[in-house]
Amino acid sequence: MQRSNVIDQNRLDYNTIIILAYNVWFNKLADYFFYKFSLIPKIVWNSMASENKSGVQGDKEADSAARARHAGLRIVLAIISTLILLPPAWLGLGSKSPWAVPLEAVVFTLLVFCIAYLIQSTGMRRTWVLRTAFLLGVGLSLLRWGVGILAGNTVSLWWVVLAAIYAFTGGLLYTAVSVGLWEDNFPPGRDDVDEVIAIHKRRLGEVPPLPIAKRLFDFLVAIFGLILSSPIWILISFLIWFEDPGPLLFVKNSVGKGGRNFRQFKFRSMVRDAEKETGPILASEDDTRLLRIGYILRKTALDELPQLLNILSGDMSLVGPRPQRTVLVLEYLRQMPEYAERHRVPPGISGLAQVVGSYYITPRQKLRLDRLYVRHASLGFDIKLLVMAFLVVFYLRWKKNWNGRIPRTWFRFGA
Fold first, then answer.
1. CA distance 163 to 132
2. Phi, psi angle pair for 54, to nearest 5°
3. How many of the other CB atoms lie within 10 Å of CB of 71?
4. Would you say 260 and 316 are in contact if contact means Cβ atoms under 8 Å apart?
5. Are the CB atoms for 186 and 261 separated by under 8 Å?
6. Rounded alpha-carbon distances, angstroms, from residue 137 to 81, 100, 289
7. Which of 71, 62, 147 has the alpha carbon at shortest distance from 114?
8. What share of the chain is helix, strand, coil (3-state, %, to 5)?
9. CA-CA distance, 368 to 355, in Å (whole number)?
């Protein structure tokens, strides 16, 4: 028997009423947000503050343009919200249509982007603009789920989870457009970069290429690590963004092999523009600039995950001297040119100085340990250091009264 494509009229009427009621509610909410708290105060203030007629006329024209822009976006939002509430069958898409999920993803992403754009004109703090837009998007997904249940349609609760991911994507889109997804802090000047390279050339000469076995090992582990950690990337990105909406990544301009400057990626663990007033400085153990999620990321070293991308590009290795900022390295080189010797090999996510020493040892102590690593470097030694680094981060750091030193029985130079 041929399946009927006719939609039950009662269900159609019920959903139509829900959609109309929602759009009435949405427009009332828009009036409350965008006119009462944004445009009207601006008109009153401009009328009181402006004394010449041309200025008042210009303010009125600007307000008219703002009204027109907001009205257009409200129409877009009404259309998008209607598409969200409509069952896929009404759009000519079956529940198993390959176009249903992409359509919902695009619609929800645009919805949250438009809501954030409109809310920002109210004068609300930037962090709450994005949080509010995200929460409204998630709330709408719950409404869509409830409407589907009441209308007799089968709507999985997983749809709400997907919708939350789409809403987060919309927030990221707005973040990318407004402030960018990474924070490139204090890139060094061209003269500083050239001076660092010149000192390295005088001290090291030609640096030998990386052994093929080490490069292949780095590449394969980085690919495998990116695949396995992809769900963690999404969770960390959301937690950073929701606590302090803004860039997800922090870019450090660091010194690599042979003194070359490269962009080192990390998950942002501090508030945005944390070094605006101080300039590039080392973080302290009780740094007040740390986010709550940032403390956990640093404790577990998960803020280093994006450096897997640096490994793929060849700027870093899994094991090697930890990269340091170009502006700081330049200061060290001016005082002790031998500091260049730690850059005979690519910098690493983990290194001997981090396993045996700590984050707060002096530059000269780091140089001593990094020289030992360069002297004994091998694939077997790298694997040993990776295992010890894992135990330090996920076991010893969480041990009560740990003195910061690894047991001597764990350690031996060479392969």
1. 15
2. -65, -35
3. 12
4. no
5. no
6. 10, 18, 30
7. 71
8. 65, 5, 30
9. 14
Amino acid at 331: E
Written as one string, the DSSP assignment of 244-267 is S-S-SEEEEEEE-GGG-EEEEEEE
> Burial code of 267-291, b = ≥16 C-beta within 10 A, e = fewer?
bbbbebebeeeeeeeebeeeeeebb
pLDDT digits (tens, 9 = 90+) for 174-186: 899 888 999 988 8
In this structure, are residues 285 and 228 in contact, taking their beta carbons and an 8 Å threshold?
Answer: no
| Residues 166, 117, 87: CA angle, nearest 5 degrees | 40
Contact 279, 186 (CB under 8 A): yes
Contacts of 158 (CB under 8 A, 6+ apart): none
> Angle at the Cα of 364 (from 362 to 369), degrees rounded to 5?
95
Query: What is the secondary structure of 261-310 as a DSSP string?
Result: EEEEEEE--B-TTTTTTT-S-PPPTT-TTB-HHHHHHHHHTGGGTTHHHH
What would the two tokens of residue 236 be? 């960390």
Residue with tokens 């102590």: 365
Q: Regarding beta strands 249-255 and 317-319, do their DSSP bridges make them parallel or antiparallel, or are they unpaired?
A: unpaired
Q: For 287-377, where are the alpha helices, taking DSSP H only?
A: 292-300, 307-313, 326-335, 352-356, 363-376
Could you read off the pLDDT of 205-239 as tens digits, one per residue?
Answer: 888 899 999 999 999 999 999 999 999 999 999 99
Q: Do residues 81 and 140 lie in contact, with contact meaning Cβ atoms separated by under 8 Å?
A: yes
User: Quick check: pTM over 0.85?
Assistant: no
